[in-house]
Specification:
CATH architecture of the largest domain: Sandwich
Mean pLDDT: 94
Low-confidence stretches: none
Number of helices: 12
CATH superfamily of the largest domain: Cupin
CATH class of the largest domain: Mainly Beta
Structural class: alpha+beta
Length: about 400
């Protein structure tokens, strides 16, 4: 593992066995200088044509309307929601927090770390940056419905962490539904009260209540949100497979659940039997498709790739795009959640060599016309040129 040590001082084995989903964990002295900085944030806010929803702002515990910091993009832009750096400046100077959302889509070093972390954990990852003015608190005490790694990059921030009032909350159980209970728990003695400085990282499982206040200088921290894949997700994928096979009949007219408990029991028994009869590999494919929809693969350069495919030779070396979810389904190469590439029986051995991700010399691939096959896979966004061995 290479990504997890960037965020956690515990070994991968200890993290998996003792920390993951169970307790908070504070790591110190981690490298941060190569990831993101206040200057990088200013670059995004003022020079990159940023649009909502990649930016949010919050003040006094509430998210501000986007219209307060966005406007028309100017001549020829044709957009009405481009970030206005002067408006962001005014709001930030008055104490509002800047939230840069989806940094795993916008900033190279963060994109690479997030993708590697998602591969290592087996759960999709998103990254936001929170930039808070001195002596300000952006959000009220709350919990997240996903695990987080909070990496302090600049400034200092005072964090208070409390035990959950709802264990392992799901996305449809936001903290606002039980705001009074959250506020009451936050008024109790915290289980962790600490100041994060650059290089400190705090892991919090979903449901752990937390709040943070910037101290005497601007604070910048990155939040790596781990979108937990749960047992319910696997069962949901299995039920989707049953629905695809036609098991979704409408119940009778006038059906009353209170008067048909035996019928409900029969349906539950039938569902259990049908679920048990499913091939686990079929459910696994549905889970792979969901993962592909949630996590983008390594970027591909469209223009350069077309040029490279046209110049491909037997001596060229290629590999599968990193973090690409792809698998063979008979004579169909399934790529991501929607893309499919037909292959012939003779091409399957070559595709099977490429799928593990190890670099391959094109001329060493089995079958007829490996150059033609690889050129097509490059144009389909499946493989890329590499100089790696």
């Amino acid at each position: 593992m290479t990504a997890l040590p960037r965020l956690c001082s515990a070994s991968a084995e200890r993290f998996a066995a003792e920390i993951w989903g169970r307790r908070e964990w504070l790591s110190t002295g981690l490298p941060v200088d190569d990831l993101f900085s206040i200057a990088d944030a200013d670059e995004l806010l003022s020079r990159r044509g940023l649009r909502t929803p990649f930016l949010r702002m919050a003040a006094d515990g509430r998210v501000l309307p986007a219209g307060r910091f966005t406007g028309p993009g100017g001549a020829g832009a044709g957009v009405a929601d481009q970030v206005r750096d002067d408006a962001v400046l005014s709001l930030f100077a008055d104490g509002a927090t800047v939230v840069l959302q989806g940094l795993h889509r916008l900033w190279g070093p963060i994109r690479d770390l997030a993708a590697d972390l998602a591969d290592e954990l087996g759960h999709p990852v998103q990254v936001n940056a929170y930039i808070t003015p001195p002596q300000s608190q952006g959000f009220d005490p709350h919990y997240d419905t996903h695990d987080v790694f909070v990496l302090q990059v600049a400034g200092r921030k005072h964090w208070r962490v409390h035990a959950p009032v709802l264990v392992d909350p799901m996305p449809d159980q936001p903290w606002g539904q039980i705001g009074d209970a959250v506020a009451a728990r936050a008024a109790e003695e915290p289980r962790l009260d600490t100041v994060l400085t650059p290089g400190d990282c705090l892991y919090l499982p979903r449901g752990f209540i937390h709040s943070a206040t910037a101290l005497a200088e601007i604070s910048l921290h990155l939040t790596f949100g781990i979108h937990n894949v749960t047992q319910r997700d696997v069962v949901s994928a299995a039920l989707d497979e049953l629905r695809a096979r036609g098991w979704e009949s409408t119940l009778p007219v006038g059906w009353d659940p209170r008067g048909d408990l035996s019928g409900i029991r029969e349906l539950m028994s039938e569902a259990a039997a049908r679920l048990s009869a499913l091939d686990p590999a079929t459910v696994a494919e549905r889970m792979l498709a969901r993962r592909a929809a949630a996590q983008r693969p390594e970027p591909v350069a469209p223009l350069a790739t077309v040029q490279a495919a046209a110049r491909l030779t037997a001596d060229s070396r290629v590999r599968l795009r990193r973090h690409l979810v792809a698998w063979l389904d008979q004579q169909v190469l399934r790529v991501g959640d929607t893309h499919r590439v037909d292959v012939t029986l003779a091409q399957i051995p070559a595709v099977e060599l490429l799928l593990p991700g190890k670099p391959q010399r094109v001329g060493d691939l089995p079958g007829e016309d490996p150059v033609g096959l690889v050129a097509r896979l490059m144009r389909e966004g499946v493989v890329v040129l590499t100089e790696d061995d």
